[in-house]
Every structure is written in structure tokens, then in C-alpha cells.
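Chain A, query sequence.
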Amino acid sequence: MRRQVIISILLLLLPCLALPAREPGTASFRFGIEWGGCSTLYTAMHQNYTVEDGYRVDENHAGGTFIGNAQMLANAGVNITPHIALAAYSGLTGISKDFRVVPLTLRGTYFFKDMHCDGMLCYLDGGVGLKCKNLSDICTLLSAGTGYHLALSRAVSLEFLACVRLTLDSPDIMDPDTGKAIPAENIRVNNARYGALNFSVALSF
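Chain A, predicted structure.
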């Protein structure tokens, strides 16, 4: 089955596979796309604020959830050594229900074998997410992942990835009585955390 999948991908990627070979051990630019699913499995929120009528509200809850989303990313970076790559990522990813962002992150990847060979990899990824409902509003994105790297040629690779992602946010708080946004000076605590498990497929060239 694996052989059939690889052959099918190779047939689709013949134009890319014709790219000239890179000299081993030299830094080179890399580009790629990544797509997959995001499952938010944990949500925690603590909000402490004063409403317009003067009374204080303190909400604090945490627990397991299951909220399915998807992501589509593009990246550009550099292969620093045959074992280390650094790239900037952006695209669209889901965090929770009706909560999607445009990520702007930097990812460092380590290939346990030469990146021109099949083998395991691991990576750390961090940056911000621009909320789709208001791009001037941001959250923090942190991920740690691993996966398997298939070197289809010296110029093209396919990767199967899994990661744990933590999103840190300070969402808008609406007054339960008036429906208006609570002003910043009336908010003491406003923390939201989302833990997700993501699975994706990446194509790099």
C-alpha cells in the first residue's frame, strides 16, 4: 500500500522532481504546503470582571472537549544544515468553535537522519494568530510535534506529522445584561487556553 501511495504521488510531482539537485551540506531555500485536521481536546477559561451595573463576575472552568477543525498552511524557509530547517508558516487554522485564525509562526525542524533520507523528525513552532473576525486581535500559538519524513527526491519530500498545540487567548467579554463589550479597565482576569492534537500531511520542495 505504501509503495502504491508513493508511486501515485511521484506521478503527480514529476515537474517538481525535475528540479536540479542541491549540493549536500549547503544551505538552501525550502517551500511547502501542509494540510490536515485539528481536534481541540481541552479548554480552560478564567474571567473576572465588573459589569455595568457594578457587580463582579468570576467565571473559572476547565475540562475536556472535542471540537473538530481543519488547517491549511504554506511555508517558506531555509535548510540550514542537512539536519536542521527553519521556516515561516501562514495560512488558516481552526482553534475552537467559530474561532479561526491566520497563523504567523516560525518553525524549527530537526531531522534525525539527513533530510535527503527517510526518517523521523521533530519540531517546535511558535508565533501569533490573527483572528479572522478581527485581524487586529491576536492570540499566541505554541506547538511541539513529530513525524516521519519521506525523501521522494533530493528536491521533494513528503511528511506525515502530529503535534500538540496550545493556544493562549484573551477573548472579548460581553456584559450579560447589556450585551456590550466589557471595557479593559473593568477586567481583572481574562485568560483562555485551548489544547489541541493536530494531524497533517506536508509537501516540501
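The chain has one domain: 21-204. Residues 1-26 have pLDDT under 50 and may be disordered.
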